[in-house]
Amino acid sequence: MALVLGIDVSTTATKAILVDGSGSVRGTGTAEYGLSMPHPLWSEQDPALWWAATCAAIPRALATAGASAADVEAVGLTGQMHGAVLLDAAGAVIRPAILWNDQRTGAECDEIRERVGLERLIEITGNDALTGFTAPKLLWVRNHEPGAWRRLAKVLLPKDEVRRQLTGEMAMDAADGSGTLLFDLGARTWSPEVLAALELDPSWFPPTFEGPAITGRLTAAAAQATGLRAGTPVVAGGGDQAANGVGVGAIDEGVVALSLGTSGVIFAATRSPIHEAQGRVHAFCHAVPGRWHLMSVMLSAAGSFRWFRDALAPGEAFGELAASAGEVEAATDGLHFLPYLTGERSPHPDPQARGAFVGLTTAHDRRHLTRAVLEGVAFGLRDGLDLMLAAGMPRPAQIRASGGGLASPTWRQILADVLEVELVTTSTTEGAAFGAATLAAVGVGWFVDAEAAVAALVRTTPAASPDPRRAAAYAEAYRVFDGLYPALAPTFHPDNLTARPS
């Protein structure tokens, strides 16, 4: 059988999936790992974990597919964005990778705005300086770890470290590269102006490629470690959100992707490099050549629901807990939840933002709290969607949704009602890995381009349509929600509060 392999190097596991020419997933393999939080707001990972997990996940995928190495014609890569992988001149990893959800770099974000100028930074890169991005991580290492900084010779992103182990080549795709805050968005490559302003050596950054481009081939050592065939081509792929956009078919205007995992993402393809004037939503290159995308990211989406379950309903199944929220009327009891448990990115770029229940009374029970959490996440996603529309994105006719949170019919309906648009699901739940495999299929000539590949491989199923009555109730509740962050923000920043007389 002819197969392509998609590898997704996520924050908690590496997943490998094998896809055939009809779009069917023939085999999957997963290997999990942990991360380190050595200090408050820090999040790090040993890059060796990704390679070990890749070597474990690929044979499992081959075994479940009943496939051999000869069946795999190409490999596509995707994974967590923004992580800083630092290598020395010999190719040794200098320190643990600093991940996308690390929040230590507030001062370095200010430094970037000062060095480049906020307006100019957004004009070039499409984005404000946020703590999750790669560039402030590099400045943090320069400011705090001079020994590591003196050794620095190359900077990679997580999936590209796996690429290096597979092929011996250092390369990066335009979609993932644009998430470093060091890209010229329109030119789709590194910005000489930003690199110069931040005093970063251009030689540290690898060449960049479009998503379907072949960037190298498996070495003999990698073939022996993974069970694949030496010489198998590896394409550039894309950061997880751009690859997910390909995997669910959000590659042109009018179709929007929603990913409801630990974080929550609204993703919309554009045909030109547009950005939100204040940088409150992200503007990146797409993994599809000649396309860009806007992206709104909330840091704790299904992560908020997991926290709630673990704290207040330990051991209860997520599905049963979410179903109990269906016993409560939508947006009728004045209870709101702010889902800023780990800070926030869109539309409030505030690492110190915090979660809150507002409006609690003795009439509320666990069902009301559960529904408030599900609604609060949906409102947070609407924040981002509204900003993207204001930036010039066409209003979507359909949202293609993926992620573990979509398993709940109650949550699917809340999302459709709050966002006021039809939700559909796609033929695979592995959007990012499926997108990486799709890009690999284009790269080795199964399809002439990504549009043809998506048309052949991606199938959709209706999931939920907005109910006009509930949508109207949510529109009113959203106006209240929209005012809560400005009202509570001073309490998230106690150092800025005016001292009260004793």
Tell me about this structure.
Helices cover 38% and strands 20% of the residues. By secondary structure, it is α+β, with helices and mostly antiparallel strands. The longest helix is centred in the C-terminal third of the chain and has 25 residues, at 366-390. It starts with a strand and ends in a 10-residue tail after the last helix. Residues 497-502 have low confidence and may be disordered.
Question: What low-confidence regions span 5 or more consecutive residues with pLDDT below 50?
Answer: 497-502
Helix content: 25-40%
Report strand order across the widest sheet.
Answer: 18-19-17-16-22-23-24
Distance between the termini: 77 Å
Major sheet description:
7 strands, mixed
How large, in whole angstroms, is the Cα Rg? 22 Å
- What is the number of strand segments? 24
Shape designation: globular
> What is the number of helices?
18
Give the helix/strand class: alpha+beta
Please report which band the strand proportion falls in: under 5%, 5-15%, 15-25%, 25-35%, 35-45% or over 45%: 15-25%
Write the layout of secondary structure elements.
Layout: E1 3-9, E2 13-19, E3 25-32, E4 44-45, H1 47-65, E5 72-79, E6 85-87, E7 97-98, H2 106-116, H3 118-125, H4 134-144, H5 146-151, E8 154-156, H6 158-167, E9 172-173, H7 174-177, E10 183-184, E11 189-190, H8 192-197, E12 208-209, E13 214-217, H9 220-226, E14 233-235, E15 238-239, H10 240-248, E16 255-260, E17 264-270, E18 282-285, E19 292-298, H11 302-312, H12 318-325, E20 336-338, E21 356-358, H13 366-390, E22 398-402, H14 409-419, E23 423-426, H15 431-443, H16 450-457, E24 460-464, H17 468-482, H18 484-492
Parallel strand pairs: 1-5, 5-15, 9-12, 16-22, 22-23
Antiparallel strand pairs: 1-2, 2-3, 4-7, 6-8, 10-11, 13-14, 16-17, 17-19, 18-19, 20-21, 23-24
